[in-house]
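To close the section, here is one more complete example, presented without commentary so you can practise reading it yourself. The ligand is zinc ion.
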Amino acid sequence: MDSAESSNQRRATVTQHEQWMVQDQVFQIYDIFANIPTKAQNLMLELQRDSHIEYLNKGLMQLSSSFVVLDANRPWLCYWILHSIALLGESIDYELENNAIDFLKHCQDPNGGYGGGPGQMPHLATTYAAVNSLITLGGRRALSSINREKLYAFLRRMKDSSGAFRMHDAGEIDVRACYTAISVASILNILDDELIEDVGNYILSCQTYEGGIAGEPGSEAHGGYTFCGLAAMILINEANRLDLAGLLDWVVFRQGVECGFQGRTNKLVDGCYSFWQGSVFALLQRLHSVNGKRVAFSDAEGDCATDSTSEGELTDGNSSETDETCHMKQGVGHGEMEPLFHSIALQQYIILCSQEQGGGFRDKPGKAKDYYHTCYCLSGLSVCQYSWSKDENSPPLPKAVLGPYSNLLEPVHPLHNVVLKQYHEAHEFFSSQSTS
Ligand SMILES: CC(C)=CCC/C(C)=C/CC/C(C)=C/COP(=O)(O)OP(=O)(O)O
Ligand SMILES: [Zn+2]
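Output:
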C-alpha cells in the first residue's frame, strides 16, 4: 500500500484470472458480431423492446400481488420497473397504475417517509424509490399522494448534527443518504437552508485521493457513491467545492477494454455502472468543458436567472443559484459537444453483453437478468444516446445512437434519474405548492 492509499481503506480487487474470464466472454461476443453479415449485425444491435416490456409487465403484475422475496424492497422494484417502462416510452395499464399508487400509499409512514413495505420503518432509500415511482407514474392522484409536510419532517429527523443524513432512525450515515434526501427534497420543492446546511462538507470529506467519491470518509471511491455525491453537490449548488478535475480523471479510467464501466479500480465491469458512471460524465459535461472553461448552455428556459455567478463562487441553495445549476436542475441541454467517454462502445456493451434477447438486462454475460440491472442499463443507454445532444428539444443525431434509430429511448433527468417529461410535470405541480 502506498502512502496515498494508506490513509484510505484498502482497495477491493479481483484476480487477473477473473478479469480474463470476463474479457474472454465479452470478446467472444464481439468476435461473433464482427464476423457475421451486416444484416445479422443489425439484428444483434436491436433493442428488444417487446421482450423488455413483456418482462417488465410480468414483474409489475407480480408486484401487484404479493412479492415475498425482497420484501423490504418493493418500492425499489416499483421504481426499477416503472422507470424502465417509461424509458421505453410505454405507459402502464390503468389498473396496475392504481394498484401501484395504492401500494405506495400503504408504504407511507404516518410520520413521513416511505418504508420497504406497508407498516415498515421509513427509510431514505425506499423514500427516494417511492417518490421517483410516483413522479414516473405522474398525474394528480400519484403526485398528491405524497405527504410533503410529513416528508419534510422525516428528512429533518434524518439530518445528523454533522449536516449529513442517516438512512433511517439510528441508521448509518453515508453519501447515499445525503443524495436521496436532497434529491427528494429538491424534486418535491421542499429543499431549504436547514436541510442543506453542512451536507456539502460531509460529501467533500468523502472524495478520495483517487478523485472519485466514497460512501463514507476513509472508504474507497465507487461509481454509485460518486453519482450520489456529485448529483447532491449540484443540487445544493456546491459542486465547485469538489476537485472536479480529479473526479473526471478518476471516472475516465473506469471504462474498460470490455467497453462497459467498472464501479471501482481493479473490479469487473458491470452493466449497472452504465448509469452510475455514465451520468457522472453527463453531469460533469454540463458543469465544465475539459479544460475548465464553461460549456455553452442552450437558451434559457423557464425561470432561471440571467446573471451567471462567477466560476468557483458558491451559492446557498435555491435563492441565488447560478444559471448553470438552474439549467441543470431543469435538465436543459448542454450544447453540442463530444462525450467525454466512449458512448458508442458503452452502448455496444449494454446491447450486446447486458441485453437478454428474451427481455431484461444483466450485469454481464453469464449472470441472470434482474429489474435493477434492467433499470440502470436502460438509464445508461439513454444517457449515452443523448450525450451529444444540443438540447432536450432536438433529438439525437443518428450517429449518436448505436443500432437502428428505433433504439432511441426517452431522455432522463441526470440528477434524479426520472424521465425528463415526468420531471417537468412534477416540477410544475410542486412549484405551485408552498414549501412545507
Ligand atoms: C440512489 C442510491 C441508493 C444509490 C446507490 C448507489 C450504489 C449503486 C452504490 C454501490 C454500493 C457498493 C459499494 C456496491 C459494491 O458492490 P460490489 O462489491 O458487489 O460491486 P463491485 O465489485 O462492482 O464494486
Ligand atoms: Zn450491477
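Once you have examined the C-alpha cells, check your reading against these statements. The pocket of farnesyl diphosphate (ligand 1) is lined by residues 125, 128, 176, 179-180, 222, 224-225, 228, 263-264, 267, 270, 276 (CB under 6 Å). The chain has a mean pLDDT of 88.
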